[in-house]
Design a protein that fits this description.
The protein is α/β, with parallel strands linked by helices. The chain is built from 6 helices and 15 strands. The chain has one domain: Metallo-dependent phosphatases (Purple Acid Phosphatase, chain A, domain 2), CATH 3.60.21.10. Helix 3 crosses helix 4. It is globular and about 50 Å long.
């Protein structure tokens, strides 16, 4: 099985014509996406404020126009991804909020599965996951975030007994070489993910969120892959049977 892995689209629609040609040569069997379809500076700013201060937001409202624009972006994104003719698995990113709107937008796509809602079986592997960022609050209105304690409780229930044939798909990276932010001392990884990975031992952990550190790392026997931001033309190809991870030359978007 060959998987094309993407993350952090952020409305980067210039990637599509280039990606069509690139994926035709790769002959992938499945596409995985690790979250952040939307591009919202306002929601990102709200998340950063909460992440920095540790304090929940006061009441804020999204407009009806926000909902319409979000839905159109979601639909266009999945129309393009499903155009490659293979199943698509994904989790929401921290900007893809509220997640109820995202789930409604994908309801008409028969070959798209949000693995936060249900596991997906394909080619002998089970894809499981949870989206959003791991931070100081549980929030799903202006951005999508879960506390570490909440995350541990939720994600611990999704693993089957056959962990060696499991792929964990998350937005937030674990603490690793693929979790650095814009500066070398900005750590975006969540230690709770390391604990989950070490306890359950999935074959792979696919993640995003950390735009500046695409690549791969290992946590015990698990291969951790951050493909880099899709809006910058980055992606990864995973040859599962041969345990190979490839990072093609970024598309010139």
């Amino acid at each position: 099985m060959r998987i094309a892995l993407f993350a952090d689209y952020h409305g980067g629609d210039r990637v599509w014509p280039l990606l069509e040609e690139a994926l035709e040569e790769e002959r992938v069997d499945l596409i995985a996406f690790a979250g952040d379809i939307l591009a919202s500076e306002e929601r990102e700013a709200l998340w950063q404020k909460v992440y920095t201060t540790g304090k929940p937001l006061g009441k804020t409202e999204q407009t009806e126009d926000d909902g319409v624009i979000d839905e159109l972006t979601y639909r266009e994104f999945f129309i393009n991804l499903t155009g490659f003719g293979v199943p698509v698995v994904f989790v929401p990113g921290h900007i893809d909020s509220p997640t109820s709107r995202l789930n409604e937008a994908i309801s008409g796509f028969s070959n798209v599965q949000n693995v936060q809602n249900a596991a997906f079986e394909f080619s002998g592997y089970t894809f499981v996951g949870w989206g959003g960022a791991i931070g100081p609050v549980d929030e799903d209105s202006n951005f999508y975030s879960v506390k570490a304690t909440s995350f541990k409780k939720k994600i611990g229930k999704v693993f089957s007994s056959d962990a060696e044939k499991t792929v964990l798909l998350v937005h937030n990276p674990p603490v690793s070489r693929v979790a650095l932010g814009q500066s070398s001392d900005e750590e975006l990884g969540a230690e709770v993910l390391n604990q989950i990975i070490e306890k359950n031992g999935p074959a792979y952990c696919f993640c995003g969120h950390a735009h500046a550190s695409p690549g791969q790392d290992n946590i015990a026997s698990t291969i951790v892959v951050n493909p880099g931001p899709m809006f910058r033309g980055r992606y990864a190809i995973i040859d599962v049977e041969n345990h190979r991870v490839l990072f093609p030359t970024p598309l010139k978007v």
